[in-house]
Amino acid sequence: MNTRTVVISPAPTANGDLHLGHIAGPFLAADVHTRYARAQGREVLLGTGFQDTSTFVVTTAHHRGVTPAELVATSAAQIEASLAALGIGVDGYTGDDDRFTKWVVDFVGRLHSAGKLELRTMKFPYSERTGEFLLDGFAAGGCPECLAESCAGLCESCGALVAAGELLGVRSTLDPEDPVVLREADVLVLPVERYREQLRAHFAANAAGMRPHMAQAMAQMLSRPLPDFPVTYPISWGIKVPFPEVAGQVVNPNAEPMAWSMHCTALAAEQRGVAAGTEDALWLAGAGSEIVYFLGFDNIYPFAIAGPAMLLAFDGQYDLPTRYLTNEFYELDHRKFSTSRGHVVWSRELAAEVPRDLIRFHLAATSPEHQRTSFSRDALARVTGTRLVEPWNRVADKVNRWIGLGPLAVSERSRRGAARMAERFAASYELAGFSLNRAAETITDQLARLDRREVTGADAGDFCFEVDRLLRAAAPILVDLAAAVLGEDAGAAPADVDSFTPAALPRLRPAEAGR
User: Quick one: CATH architecture of 355-500?
Assistant: First the structure.
């Protein structure tokens, strides 16, 4: 039986701040589940951080006219501040320190020493003008699998691995006018095909741990031979490897996820006072950890195929992740967020203008769980106003009439109703059926029900009791409202009470539209 849940949201690239698209996807979902599970008395570790080894750091710095180091330093601080601004309670926040770098080299080094990595000659885009290979974010073109625009690494549209040498209409992202040719280089690869049947068996046994889009994509990818996965790249940006046959090369940033996840878990454990010992202690077979990812669909290859294949290469030393809660893209006014075009809403800036409970509720209501969804300021004001702010304020006014008149009697009927309400929320918060959309809908439905009720002295206790239980159930989303009313007692509460003394409820401030 699992003794703890390890919740991980893959690290965003340190090439800018977090916009609402980032928060609406994996981060809010991971935070909400973690808050709920802890309220049930479970042990949960939540980790994320930032990644500075991605070549997108270099390309972004180039276009902004700053050094990569300057961009990383600024972005790392912005990412951490934005998570805090939206109430994302991270335990382990990774960075670019020596401890992480050493662990990645050690992790890959053990695979190398065991003979699990093999030398392959592969073709890569190459700039003869600069004398550099163009990999990952350095090159763009068409995905050979789905034909959508992609980079020379992973396709964010179909989730497939993109062999750099097979990119269609390849061009340099640093200089689109620079002619690109293909050149061979020897790199170390993991022969992922060797582990395909084990991966198929694992994901078949854990099919309930994936949403439909990911399950479909995984079935398709695992139905045919898997290409060799490059673990090293012949470029200079990244974590240097000490292997003489690929001297001067670095770890492919998409080969870091399992080592990064273990490091992330170790930091989270240390923060919460959980004894771990080594970076990978909580990932060892039999350690009692359920590994759960909340991630964008575009991250499934490194975290669900290449990464687990690396774990399998350790011959049973590690347990594999069992759940992947994916999300699709969250757009702004039905167009993709774009920092370069100024088409973006920054998380911290919005949180400085709008109560973050309203932001969290709206992002939950519009979270892109199964298809692309969109954000607008007008919709934020309208949806939160009609579904949350206005009904809550009316309900709060009804409760506040009874302040100082308790304890008030609570009936068996009301206790049963509160229990059913808690069950509906639990169905949305538990991993087996996790859905921010349904959790937000349940808040809306229950508020509307309470808003319609006429409260008299005979049922004032029932009404105030059910409002309290609604707020407790909504606490993983409405963090500030719950904290203001319930304080440290925001978790689950006894249901078998005969009386209830209401506390004063604050009113919510509405969001402004059209800004």
Answer: Orthogonal Bundle (1.10)
